[in-house]
UniProtKB/TrEMBL annotation:
Protein name as it appears in the record: SGF29 factor
Gene Ontology cellular-component annotations: SAGA complex
Classification via PANTHER family: SAGA-ASSOCIATED FACTOR 29
Source species of the chain: Motacilla alba
Position of the signal peptide: none
Length: 189
């Protein structure tokens, strides 16, 4: 039942994403006219070989408008990225729920042992679907973005991808890329 509601929510989000993409194109075409005017004004200034107060004020107004247009387009793109992240999150939740329920798709049967090349391909595909954070100028990145550490009391959620240190039988330690399945508060692992 939860999978059906997730499917309908994903379909709804895809529709919203489609509208945001159309809105992005409208914003871009709206700002195109202003950019052409800036270019023409620069060409006229170069033919006269001087910057008159008229052109200075005209360019200032055109650049202000272009900046506002770019910010509007940027805001629409940020909303689209948020929708994409929400869709990916729902798909990941659905995948984890199916894995817990024991339902596997034919495209992704239960895995046993994989060779290094297959693992690298899976890692590459996983890296392409990681969430993307694009901050505004002066905005600091959130925890776990890049080299920003998490808070000391942070507990990884099931489905999170982590770098984990494992000890081999011989006592060697290796770092692996792993997916969190559960967290034990008693062992702090």
């Amino acid at each position: 039942m939860a999978l059906v509601s997730a499917d309908s929510r994903i379909a709804e989000l895809l529709g919203e994403l489609h509208q945001l993409i159309k809105q992005t194109q409208e914003e871009r075409s709206r700002s195109e006219h202003n950019l052409v005017n800036i270019q023409k004004t620069h060409e006229r200034m170069q033919t006269e070989n001087k910057i008159s107060p008229y052109y200075r004020t005209k360019l200032r107004g055109l650049y202000t408008t272009a900046k506002a247009d770019a910010e509007a387009e940027c805001n629409v793109l940020r909303r689209a990225l948020d929708k994409i992240a929400e869709i990916k999150s729902l798909l990941e939740e659905r995948r984890i729920a199916a894995k817990i329920a024991g339902i596997y798709s034919e495209a992704e049967p239960p895995r046993k042992t994989m060779r290094r090349g297959v693992l690298m391909t899976l890692l590459q595909q996983s890296a392409m679907t990681l969430p993307l954070w694009i901050g505004k100028p002066g905005e600091k990145p959130p925890p776990l973005c890049g080299a920003v550490p998490a808070a000391g009391d942070y507990v990884a959620k099931p489905g999170d991808k982590v770098a984990a240190r494992v000890k081999a039988l011989e006592g060697d330690e290796q770092w692996i890329l792993a997916e969190v399945v559960s967290y034990s508060h008693a062992a702090n692992k």
